Amino acid sequence: MNIKDKPDNGQPCIRLQKFLSGAGIASRRRAERMILEGRVSINGSRVVILGTKVGPEDSVEIDGKPVLQHEAFHYYLLHKPAGVITSASDPRDRKTVLDILRGIPVRVYPVGRLDFDTSGLLLLTNDGELAHRLMHPSFGVDKTYRVWFKEPVDSAAIMTLRQGVLLEDGLTAPAIVRRCKDSEGSNPRILEITIHEGRNRQIKRMCSVVGFPLVKLVRIRFGPLADPGLKPGQFRELSRKEIRDLYYQAGLKKA
Ligand code: URA
To answer: I need a surface site. Which of 89, 102, 162, 225 has the fewest CB within 10 A?
Structure first.
């Protein structure tokens, strides 16, 4: 394959994984995996080197099917119910978030993940560049969870959650933690916890380490996105303002 930095028509080349995510094929991370798996070719030659450049006149294929440059991006907010997996497919044939969005006219991908038994807000889009940035730790999108416990949570545990908890993969960054109210007033068995990291099972592990394993976990905010009216299993498209706010969070400018 001829690797060029500037094709004849003067338009810039971009990295193959960026091209694929921009075409709405997958997030940048997933596109990188596809390249390394040898599923991508440029002008008929298989490419397995990340960072290979592609220009406007190159023809790119995945698994032998042409990739067309993208026409429009779509953004959906889903209230993922518990008992559904955050993945495009499941070897154990469990229901996936894409099964819920089956009727929509485009292929979108989840931005980050929620555990099988966690419910709450999940963004899905075919805008690979935005998804890549929102998942990247350096952009640190705040995520807020409502957390239910069997026992009342004491102040010492809350203080530790706020300061940082030592997990097996290191100390967590400081979290915002507040007590919640229910219809009968302040409820010591419910907390709201906001974190900007996205480690595996992070909230569950943090709560267990401070001695209060949680019994229920719901994500109520993802960056600028919140929607208390969206019930489990419901989804909707984002408003233009929500998309602009996400772009701002991700350090991108929306044209
Ligand atoms: N933290 C968890 O423990 N689980 C989730 O699904 C999300 C955050």
So the answer is: 102
Which atom of ligand 1 lies at the shortest distance from residue 120's CA?
6
Predicted TM-score (pTM) of this structure: 0.78
Answer yes or no: is 2 within a domain: no
| CB of 125 closer than 6 angstroms to any ligand 1 atom | no
- CA quadruple 26, 140, 251, 221: dihedral sign: positive
Total domains in the chain come to 3
Residue pair 78/109 in contact (Cβ under 8 Å)? The answer is: no
What is the CATH number for 118? 3.30.70.580
How far, CA to CA in Å, does 2 sit from each of 60, 63, 184? 13, 20, 69
Could you tell me if 152 and 114 lie in one domain? no
Structural domain containing residue 160: 142-222
Enzyme catalytic residues: 115
Distance from Cα 81 to the centre of ligand 1, integer Å: 13
122 within ligand 1 shell (Cβ under 6 A): no
**135-184 confidence digits (pLDDT tens):** 887 887 999 999 999 999 999 999 999 999 999 999 999 999 999 987 88
